[in-house]
Amino acid sequence: MSSNYVAQGSQALNSRSKLLTSLLSERRLPAKGWDDASIESFISEASMMDSNNFLDNIGVGEREARVYSPLVSRRHWGLAHGIGRSGDVAAEQPKAAGSSLLNKLTNLLVADAMKIAGLGDMGPALVLPLATGMTLTLTLLAMKAQRPKAATKVVWCRLDQKTCVKAVLSAGLELVVVPMKLEGDQLVTDVAAVETAVLREGAENVCCVVTSTSCFAPRSCDAVADVAKLCDKLRVGHIINNAYGVQAAPLCKAVSQAWRRGRVDAVVQSTDKNFLVPVGGAVVTSGAGNTKVVDAVRMSYPGRASMSPILDLLITLLSMGAEGWKRALTDREDVYRYMGEKLRETAEVNGERMLETPGNPISMGMSLASLAMEGSGGGGGGGGVGVSFFGSMLFSRCVSGTRVVAPGKRQEVGGVVFDGFGASHDCYPVPYFTAAAALGTTRDDVDRFCSQLSKCFKDYRKKIAKNAKAKAEISGED
Ligand SMILES: *Cc1c(COP(=O)(O)O)cnc(C)c1O
Fold first, then answer.
1. According to the 3-state scheme, what is the secondary structure of 51-105?
2. Is the alpha carbon torsion for 446, 242, 388, 371 positive or negative?
3. Which is the closest atom of ligand 1 to the Cα of 270?
4. Collapsing DSSP states into helix, strand and coil, what is residue 410?
5. Residues 228, 234, 239, 244: is their CA dihedral positive or negative?
6. How far is the CA of 163 from the centre of ligand 1 (A)?
7. Can you point out the beta strands (E) in 202-322?
8. How many helices (H) and strands (E) does the chain have?
9. How many angstroms separate the most distant Cα atoms in the chain?
10. Is the pLDDT of residue 439 over 90?
11. What is the C-alpha to C-alpha distance for residues 33 and 280, in angstroms, rounded to an integer?
12. What residues flank ligand 1, with Cβ below 6 Å?
């Protein structure tokens, strides 16, 4: 074979191996995202470092990463050992050097991505193959182990998401709900009420306070820094549910301020909501100054863990690179502004208005007050069209993710009763719906959403008119 072709070929191989060398030495997101072939070749090489893929392996243990189906094996690049050991879910596995390497790298790269997003002075990140709710439960259990035996209460700023409630109850802890304060349209943290709740229960009986950053409008991000100062003063734990907060710079800033100014034991965020991967993972972290609870989560995780959600995240981060990640973040900011403008126009045309919620940089709400009034008969006798019907109209027009919230719904979650469920408030004054400008949403999504929305307003009003006519005919016959 001609030597200059071989030279050219090995140069190509060289530049791929340089990518890898630089990744392993820098341990940060590559500036530019990798192409799929480079990612696959890296994963295949790592996989060959696991004992189940050795050419001459003789496995005689009870866990040798044997996989029956070649299809399943391919789906996982032969990475079947999982991650961690019984003593520490982040520990290296002697049988799986490749998996261990990929796992370590994922934790480092996701930490870098989170720093880029605005989480300053962050400690190590721990990716777990459990979604946010389960990871919150595990984190609460680790927190509980560090508190006095009697500390079984969790003081929680209300957020109407069933998972938040279940995460606390599943950890065997008792939920103490602190109502949100209505300020204008917005629901904000009642910091004084948090203090009152902790003092009423007795700080020695309180495991921790749980606050949240990302949430449905009209609820705003909690005053996490104020609560952090309070938790420091009262000497109780503080866990922040940052479910999809990584994608929004103001929320990252709030979290960083919280761990700089006060007490934050752990922050939990979802991998699917923040990094565009399938559901299945979450990241636990904290400020660099207080990593005790995160360490405890690592150590208390019972057994080995699935590699799958970790690999999805690693592939995604390598594919995005720092450039792609930053672009995803700024595109989202752009689409948040765009959605706000477009929805405001749609609201005005239809006699509604946007709820003013400056403390929520992701989700937004539009009132459905006139629609509800017309539907109930107040605007011309068209009784019986509940505003929640508007939600099903949107859904049947292929719009997913909006939530119509009508006041007055009572809901029980794990034995805890909530009035006005959905609104994070017992009696929010107006019906509304919410939509989110979350990572990955495009301007085109917004345009198509607003066009379906306008049609729904029209159809809803048609239905009201039809009902009113039918009613009039019935009463005419009488
Ligand atoms: C999505 C979400 C959860 C639950 O997350 P899972 O990943 O489904 O467990 C909890 N809290 C908030 C605020 C969320 O947005």
1. HHHCCCCCCCCCCCCCCCCHHHHHHCCCCCCCECECCECCCCECCEHHHHHHHHH
2. negative
3. 7
4. coil
5. negative
6. 6
7. 206-212, 237-241, 266-270, 282-285
8. 15, 14
9. 100
10. yes
11. 23
12. 131-133, 159, 161, 163-164, 212, 214-215, 241, 243-244, 270
Structure tokens at 469: 């006519």
Interatomic CA distance for residues 136 and 307, integer angstroms: 19
pLDDT of residue 2: 87
Does an H or E element contain 441, and which?
none
Mean pLDDT (whole number) for 19-27:
94
Predicted confidence band at 149 (pLDDT cuts at 50, 70, 90)?
A: very high
Contact by Cβ (8 Å): 172, 152: yes
Per the structure block, which two tokens stand in for 86? Answer: 């019984």
Find the 135 Cα to ligand 1 centroid distance in Å. 10
Q: Any alpha helices (H) in 235-307, and if so which ranges?
A: 249-261, 271-275, 292-300
The token duo for 154 is 């969790």
Backbone phi and psi for residue 114, each to the nearest 5 degrees, phi listed first: -70, -35
In angstroms, the CA 213 to CA 451 distance is: 30
What three-state secondary structure class fits 361?
coil
Q: State the residue for tokens 């071989």.
A: 6
241 CA distance to ligand 1 centroid (A)? 8
Nearest to 403, CA basis, from 416, 412, 394: 394
Kind and range of the H or E element at 248?
none
Nearest residue to 153 via CA among 177, 171, 175 = 175
Categorize the per-residue pLDDT at 282 as very low, low, confident or very high, splitting at 50, 70 and 90: very high
Q: Hey, whose CA ends up nearest to atom 15 of ligand 1?
A: 243
Residues in the chain: 478
pTM score above 0.85 = yes
> How much is the average pLDDT of 376-389?
68
Asked whether 116 and 129 are in contact (CB, 8 A), the reply is no
How far is Cα 186 from Cα 174, in angstroms, rounded to an integer? 27
- Would you call 406 helix, strand, or coil by DSSP? coil
Distance 51 CA to ligand 1 centre (A): 36
In this structure, what token pair is assigned to residue 262?
Answer: 């006060």
Q: Is the pLDDT of residue 381 over 60?
A: no
d(Cα 7, Cα 9) in Å, to the nearest integer? Answer: 5
The neighbouring-strand residues paired with 320 are none
Segment 42-49 shows an average pLDDT of 95
Dihedral over alpha carbons 134, 136, 141, 143 (to 10 degrees): 160
| Residue 135 parent element (H or E) | helix 132-145
What integer is the mean pLDDT of 435-462?
Answer: 95
